[in-house]
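**Backbone shape codes:**
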Amino acid sequence: MQRRDFLTAAVAGTAALGAGAASAAKPKVAGVETDRAYMVGLLQKITEPVLSNMAKGQLKARFQLEVSPTWDGRNRDFAYMEAFARLIAGVAPWLTLPEDDTAEGRVRRVLTQQALQAYVHSVDPQSPDYLLWRGHGQALVDSAYFTNALMRAPKSLWEPLDATTKSRIVTEIKQLRRVSPPYTNWLLFAAMNEVFLLMIGEDWDPMRVDLTIKKMEEWYAGDGWVADGTRLHFDYYNSYVIYPMLVEILEVLVRLKPSFNNLKPEVELPKWQKRMQRYGEHLERFVSPTGTYPPIGRSLTYRTAAFQPLALLALRKALPAKLSEGQVRGALTAVHRAVFSAPSNFTSEGYLTIGFVGHHPELGDWYSNNGSMYITSESFLALGLPANDSFWTAPAEDWTQKKAFAGQGFPKDYPVDY
């Protein structure tokens, strides 16, 4: 991996693989495209323009940049970091699957090679695609998705990297300690980076982790909802950041058993998993019979990332007992079909646009650019389960609202006290 062009042949073959493999990777059951084939095809469509160009050091040259009409004026180069980091965090579990010679497997192989080369460019100061690690504190946010991907796929994305790239990544992550995160979900970004450093055997700052976990406990509002700071926000930040990052941080602490302060990760993890399951029950009930869901709160243009906790629970085989795999798969597939039904979700070159269902830049926030939109990949985490896993093979079932509005019986819902 010392040479930037070590993947030239694989990268050059992407175009030929892309269209053919996408169609070939769509198995049918009784003439109907399977849920997995639909999700794989959609994730490939989202992923390829970013990774294929960044693998060649051409993302900044070719990415069609768009910012919100209320853009706050910060350096627009953050869009490239957001696009890569947020995208790769969602794609990472899928890339961990063993290599095979299926059409899907061939797509994964090329995307994994491109992702590795993109990581090389991301921290090479001489590369045209060196990311904006210095300056504005926004880099802390997206560095956490950058490291989260490496935590989710260490054997596929971290271990194969050359020593120089690994050293550069560590340097960039450590220098971000200069950013003092506000007392909001931003604490989790700092904690995620420190736990990544712990995972790879580097010096880490346990205080950033300890403080974050304790603040999340203070902000737990009950019945599966966590406030973002001292006040509850009725939006999807429990999905975008809070639950997935907190639970994955605790998973690493439980696995590695570092000794620090009086925190007991083995106690905290089951508690937060249960709370995330409860939140997942709410998310499942948000899905209408047609796959729509409430367009509420800030960062709504992150689209299907609102369902990251359900996808993560499915990946961990930890869905709440009240939710079957068939109904969750049905609900998640319906959500993606509802959101991505509009062609204007993508530019003519295949990049995501700012919007919800379609291109609506006015829905963007003051910090929104189209690189930010790639966090939608977080709803595809269940693709990290192999095609023969029961999540993908279980009979399809109606989800709660679909049952309710069809006049079928469905379970009542009550608050929890944990």
Observations:
- The radius of gyration is 20 Å.
- The first strand starts at residue 28 and ends at 29.
- Confidence is low (pLDDT under 50) at residues 1-25.
- DSSP finds 17 helices and four strands in the chain.
